[in-house]
Amino acid sequence: MNHPINPLKSDFPVFRNHPALAYLDNTASSQKPDAVIEGVKRFLEFDYANIHRGAYALSERSEHLYEHSKEKVRDLIGAASSAEIIYTYNSTYAVNLLSLSLARSGMLKKGDRVLVSIAEHHANVVPWLVLKEWFGVEVDYFGMTNDFEIDFADIDSKMTPDTKVVAVTSASNVTGAVFDVASLGRHVSEMRDRDGNKPLFVVDARQAVPNYAVDVKHLHADFLFFTAHKMMADTGLGVLYGRKDLLKSIQPALSGGGAINWVKKEAFAPAGLPYRFEPGTPNVIGAVSLLHAIEYFESIGGYARVEEIEKPLIAKALDRFAALGDKVRLIGPKDPSQKIGIFSFTLLGVHVSDLTEHFAKYDVCVRSGYHCAEPLAAELGIDGTVRMSLYLYNDENDLDAFFSALEGAIASAAE
Ligand SMILES: Cc1ncc(COP(=O)(O)O)c(C=O)c1O
Known about the structure:
- The chain has helices at residues 13-17, 34-47, 57-77, 91-104, 126-135, 152-158, 181-189, 244-249, 284-299, 302-322, 352-361, 374-380, 396-414; strands spanning 22-23, 85-88, 113-117, 138-142, 163-169, 200-204, 223-227, 238-242, 260-263, 268-270, 328-331, 342-347, 364-365, 367-369, 385-389.
- It is an alpha/beta fold.
- The longest helix is centred in the first third of the chain and has 21 residues, at 57-77.
- Strands 2-8-7-6-5-3-4 form a seven-stranded mixed beta sheet, sandwiched between helices. The protein has a four-stranded antiparallel beta sheet with strand order 11-12-15-14, with helices on one face. A two-stranded parallel sheet has the order 1-13.
- Bound molecules: pyridoxal-5'-phosphate.
- Pyridoxal-5'-phosphate binds at residues 90-92, 121, 123, 169, 173, 204, 206-207, 227.
């Protein structure tokens, strides 16, 4: 190895335990630093109890950490209050909670339209299609330009007075293209539906929040969601942000203990915000892990540090892909300023799952398939890709391992 090792690697036990590992599947999930693992361990050893129900010190400490985690998230995404931060179980669960709650509240009904981008992850497609099946809500798609940017002309052609929701990802989990969500949010905020209301603007920030700064006000986001495990925290925790005035007017699709003020045999009254959207025991351990993940993220320099590490790697990876010739087809923007560290590609004559197995032999962790974005694959005419993706602990040694394995596959394919 000729390149300096990324010093952040030493903060992650997985890399100490597997020094030869080139972990390049970060779009799917991220590795966990000592700060998170030790923070959760300390919590379980000293402070753990169920929250909201105990007057004893352990429960109070547990609750304090749960709430503190939400305050951290509030600050991270520029929300006005932690009452706007709902903890779910992942991004997918967050969209389902939102879509079903909008339907339950009569804010989406038969004939209403939801407009999503063709680049969405299934998480931001299927819950809306469920509303189509269940309630007759229409789902339509807007496209991308040849540069993988949002096609605003196509949006305008698809908007109708029945469009009640516009939902978009901040960055594609297949192409890595970063969408100009702020401009879209502004555009949507100037539109009016048949009732004179602005369509709701929903942002899938799962690929954004771990990589670059997101501010819900700047984006004009009414709702926004992301997943903690992609940002070095535990699995099983999703974040749903909702504008407070909207959350107040929406009836949660799910309810039960913890989400109510009182219950009688025939009726109940919902709890205040955000608890009315969090029935049952929440993922307290996940919340504490996210608290430690954000603290760790801040301690290493936050988004400025991510950019400092990832931007040069993205540029180098693009150059190295370009040098491989036309047998390798890289899908997505070729300009490093337009993308995050996600690289999806095919190799002529080699099936994508054979290719990922080839990478695995060299301890290079990548993923193949449609990456839960089948409408996008159909649009681009691709039958799956291999996806390599970076995060803040990667370095040029990882890129070397990846490209040397890829060059080996190219050479074998040519034999
Ligand atoms: C853009 C995007 N949105 C949503 C999801 C779903 O996230 P989760 O599996 O955490 O629900 C993913 C998963 O990769 C994604 O990349």
